[in-house]
Design a protein that fits this description.
Order of helices and strands: EHEHEHEHEH
Distance between the termini: 17 Å
Strand order of the largest sheet: 3-2-1-4-5
Strand content: 5-15%
Helix content: 40-55%
Number of helices: 5
Length: 157
């Protein structure tokens, strides 16, 4: 298992919620947090609080992920945490929100993993972590798009 201390740990969706908590935990354990999120203000506030590096990134944008991954360089631990949820009944979810759920909750996992896994393989060590949900294993009312996208995330892992 990769030690967090002195490890470069990239966390997507780091500006708030679970991502923010994990980033604090990484810093407390002596790791170097690399924070990605769409919320630049939240990222900068967190970076000032815990250190590390912060980058505004839309993980659903494949080219942006690949470009930024080159700038960031190799990481020891990749935590795919970014996620969105509509919270609406199936027939009420706008098509665009369904597409966004899959772009962020599922396809982004492919882009980040493809960007960082090769260097882990080359070094012979590293960890990929996906924050999914129990909703990816069982259906949940008003979470149809979320549950389906997290089911796909579980399937990828």
């Amino acid at each position: 298992m990769t030690e967090i201390k002195k490890s470069r740990v990239l966390i997507t969706g780091a500006a708030s919620g679970l991502g923010r908590r994990m980033a604090r935990g990484v810093a407390e354990r002596g790791g170097h947090p690399i924070l990605w999120d769409l919320d630049g203000n939240g990222l900068e506030a967190l970076r000032r609080e815990i250190g590390g590096d912060s980058f505004v990134c839309d993980v659903s944008d494949r080219e942006a992920v690949y470009r930024l991954a080159k700038e960031v360089g190799p990481v020891d631990i990749l935590i795919n945490n970014a996620g969105v949820v509509s919270g609406e009944r199936f027939l009420d979810i706008p098509d665009g929100k369904i597409e966004r759920s899959f772009a962020v909750n599922t396809l982004a996992l492919f882009w980040t993993t493809k960007a960082f896994l090769p260097s882990m393989i080359e070094k012979g060590r590293g960890h990929l972590v996906t924050i999914a949900s129990a909703a990816g294993l069982i259906g949940v009312s008003k979470l149809t798009d979320y549950a389906a996208s997290k089911f796909a995330a579980v399937g990828l892992d």
